[in-house]
Amino acid sequence: MDYESKIIVIEQALALVKSGDVIVTGLGASEAGVFMSQLHTVAARGVRDVMVTNCLPTHESKIYEEQYADIFRVDGWFYAPVLRKAHKNGNMAFIPNHLHLAARKRLDHILPNIYIGAATMPDKHGYVSLSLSNTYEMRMIEKADLVILEINPNMPYTLGDVQLHVRDIDYMIKVDYQPPVMPDAPFSEKDAVIGKYIADMVPDGSCIQLGIGGIPNAVAEALKTKNDLGVHTEMLTTGMMKLAKMGVITGKYKQINKGKMVAAFAMGEPELYEFMDYNPSIAIMDGAWVNDPYVIAQNDNQVSINTTIEVDLTGQCASESLGSRQFSGTGGQADTAIGAQMSKNGKSIIALYSTAMVKDKDGNRHEVSKIVPQLMAGATVSLSRNDVDRVVTEYGVAELRGTDIRERVERLIAIAHPKFREELHDDAVRVGILGR
Fold it and tell me: In this structure, which CATH number among 2.30.140.10, 3.40.190.10, 3.30.1050.10, 3.40.1080.10 belongs to the domain 4-174?
């Protein structure tokens, strides 16, 4: 099919934006880079009251600057660093969500006028691939008044729920930039210890979900001795790609999507994107399906591995806020933790360091325990104590599934930093968690 008639330049795309519009762009590396970098220019022709909804933005955009605070409102499904920095401007807001319901609930609230995201060039059959994410993108496309895609020869052509025919696209902008990269985070000796504890809980043939950061990367390193792992994950990472290339990940024992690495989105090194291009062993699927706990549970031996900021002595996990200050997002933590525990022989693992360095009101740094009697005032509970399973620090593993409060207190104190253990017990009595 001839798609050239739908090609427009960026100036024409920006001219379609009008006051009061609701714009949704793709997640992470599927964000529309050129459009977002120039969106601020619509203010010069009097456009006002534009709402932009995003998740993990990866491209620079002036819409986050204070001078545009009265022009653009930005709602994010994940409070990325650029949103945290701009929060003081008063026009940034977090959308509370569980990832598998993020698109559905948002569409119940408000419909997009424009969807703008990244895609591949059309193939010989007239289909583009949404490439690196279908976390919510296709659902937004189906409801948007206008669908505009930046078609890019550098985006990997992925398979799954990501193919869209050009007849269903209103306009396309030809671009030529490299997809945003998420460098592999180095991991410390402490990460390596935690990674080893976690890998010891992952038997051969398990199906895994991993995130990003030092601890997940240490887990990936420690999994190199395993055999025939499968992948059903929210995010496909460089670490998983390396395990697949080594033959550690085969998907041989998965109950659904056997032999395939299933994810809602991917971000990582260029080598990951090259690996994904036309790779039939990878399926980028609808995030509402990927992260549905009932879908996750269909694979036996599902292991969910997530991190958190702090855990209280009853098991509540605050993974996305520092007190009342939004720091990141719930994402799929509850989805994957609950789904893994519903899986036959499945496990949910929450990892964190036992301590952190913080500044007091005088600017002095001191060490605090990340296992606490009570969460910081205003903290968001990302994973309830009803849904926590195993908690890991560099001091060991606390198995909490089915335990009472007293057992939880004892087990969590046992993996806290030794210098805080006595104080934690005394605080548990003081605040009434324990009787004595």
Answer: 3.40.1080.10
For the stretch 138-157, what's the b/e string if a residue is b when 16 or more beta carbons lie within 10 angstroms of its beta carbon? Answer: bbbbebbebbbbbbbeebbb
Nearest to 156 by CA among 254, 328, 268, 275: 275
Amino acid at position 193, single letter:
V
State how far the Cα of 244 lies from the Cα of 241, in Å rounded to an integer.
5
Write the CB contacts of 286 (distance below 8 Å, at least 6 apart in sequence): 134, 138, 139, 161, 264
Catalytic (active-site) positions: 234
Q: Is the dihedral of CA 221, 227, 233, 238 positive or negative?
A: positive
Mean pLDDT, rounded, of the chain: 97
Please check whether residue 425 is in contact with residue 409, taking contact to mean a CB–CB distance below 8 angstroms: yes
Apex 317 CA angle, 216 and 410, nearest 5: 100
76-89 pLDDT, tens digit each: 999 999 999 999 99
**Is the Cβ–Cβ distance between 348 and 338 less than 8 Å?**
yes
What local confidence, expressed as pLDDT, does residue 99 receive? Answer: 97
Question: How many H helices and E strands in the chain?
Answer: 14, 25
Helix (H) or strand (E) holding 24: strand 22-25
pTM of the model: 0.96
Give the fold, CATH level 3, of 189-430. Glutaconate Coenzyme A-transferase (3.40.1080)
Q: What is the pLDDT of residue 359?
A: 86
What SS3 class is residue 249? strand
